[in-house]
Input
Amino acid sequence: MPARVNLAYQYDGSFEGFLSCVFESFEKQEIPSAIFAEEPEQLSLCPVRFIETDQSRALRVLASIPKKISPHAQETVQVCFLSNHPQKELLLLGFLRQGYRFGAAVENRLADPTVNAVMKAVKFVYNESHLIKEFLRFSDFGGVLVSIIHPKNFVLPFIQPHFCGRYPNESFFIYDATHKTALAYRPHEWKYLAVDSFTMPEKGEEEAFYRRLWKQYYDTIAVEGRYNPRCRMGHMPKRYWADMTEFQDDGELAPSPDFLKTVSAAPKIEGSTVKQP
Amino acid sequence: MDMLEKLKILSDSAKYDVACTSSGVDRGNPGDGIGSAVSCGICHSFAADGRCISLLKVLMTNYCVYDCQYCVNRRTNDVPRAAFTPRELADLTISFYRRNYIEGLFISSGVIRNPDYTCEQMIAAVKILREEYRFYGYIHAKAIPGADEALITRLGMLVDRMSVNIEMPSQQSLRLLAPDKSKESILKPMGLIKNRIQENSTDLVRYRHTPKFAPAGQSTQMIIGATPDSDYQILNLTEGLYQKYRLKRVFFSAYMPVVQNPLLPSPDSKPPLLREHRLYQADWLLRFYGFKAAELLDESHQSFNPLVDPKCNWALNHLEQFPVEVNRCSYSMLLRVPGIGVNSAKRIVTARKAGALDFSGLKRLGVVLKRAQYFITCKGKLADGLKITQDGMLRNLISQQGLSLVRQELPQTYEQLSLFSSGKITAEEVRQCLPASI
Ligand code: SF4
Output
């Protein structure tokens, strides 16, 4: 096991850049104390070495993963890299080092803290991708469907096949405001765009009508006697609500006062979700 | 009547139906229409009652010629009535679907004119979706008891899932509360659907392009707490339905008192949510944990324990089988340990190949040690510093979720519970109180 050194790596934030860091770590036989993509917010106390992104080194590392570990491990590394784990680079370096030692079995080492953290980060990416497939809402602007999302992880690559496959004859635009990247689709091509900022245009009358129908449906379908906000929050974390039609304030389209009355009068029942026993 | 009002009436009267899942079928879009279906299902939102909203759940109409006592739409109830035209319903579904509000349509209906006519209306709506819009999303349709077999078959060829609600857990209850329905009128379409699904799957093997009959299978639902039927009866019926009718899901719906009727709980009684919760837990045990109904309840224990979940209850009554060694015991036994679910059991089986597990490792795998610690050893040892005391155990084994329901629905049991925590109770008594009836 090479020594942990009092030195941080800095790279350009790209996947190839990260792989170049892995190469560096093996070449120099050292484990950096941190790897980061941007200037760290806190003044780092240890010296920083900037690692140039080197395509051929990156490719060598990438090719070694399916060969020496497993094709699935390569997927794990790629997905974990898209997660929002603050130390994903260092984690992945540790994961790869173990991988070269244990081979494909590294992914069974679920009780190891590093492997466990990598697997959790991967799971979070997949889970959040699923949540975005659920909670993403489109609004129609002259036939183009537009959506804004704020995911923690970089989920666009995971939701792209789903939405492109589902709406092959629509045109749509999904803006990931966290990562300032958009997925633009028109039949039958798609691309990613770097977009610094984006705001929704004014809604037309027809769009306003369907929003109103949906909000009313959302309010009506709840059974008053079973009011259970905790359970709702457990399934649908509040941080997604701001981007969802049913929670957006459209002025005159807000839930009717009658409905609100029935809700506040209803007994509050907590926690009746069915959890796996 | 405008669309807003119509949708309000027809979603309001459909909301007591529980099934809203969109799972069980994987279908891509060949590129010529709109929509797709994914086998794990997608919930698009959660209502204020915490229930998933996956499908646009509406009635074709809430006019009804029948008079089921527990139902808001019964003939003799004075409520505003409305009906969608097939075109309206199809257009609305697509407008919602395009905006990613929903995964598809769940269509049910009151009986307008007669069962055949009702079924034809539903077929017309679904046909517009499938044939005009080339909609590949999910559709769940309720079979109308009494409708012609040919119509039910046609509907089944167009939709993903079919259901017939069994409504009441026993024939007596049905006779009393749904005089227009009989056990036969419910079981007949259920049997028909089962047979069509089976025939169809053999046809599919023979001819690859045979259209599929309800590829996501069949489900049903029954109302809990409107009648005196016990948990034991309900769970046995559930098991029978899975076995005999090959159902994908059985849903339970705590009765919401909607009417003043001497045959039914009074309108100010609370829905039995705790019972419903326990039934779902037991249903889970039947479907994913390898339990049999007879292991969970029997003639002399007809009701679930209000304090602990059915699996924990089983474990407490079979302490002779514990503790088990996590590094060696079988997957099926792991599943029986309180605090170990399907996912963590799978992870244990994977992780122990890479080396013996200890308690901190188990925690990382998602095992709820607070509960599991009483039932397991790691490398032959119990958890460090584990003290087995009645109130400690009770505190750790009672689920917080269950507890808040107990507190609300059964204040007396809750008070007794605080007695236990003062430690005046013996091991014997704890064991005895656990299978207590509600
Ligand atoms: S047939 Fe259905 S809609 Fe009509 S009263 Fe009975 S349960 Fe209600």
Q: What stands out?
A: Residues 227 and 268 of chain A are 6 Å apart (CA to CA). Chain A touches chain B through 66 residues (CB under 8 Å).
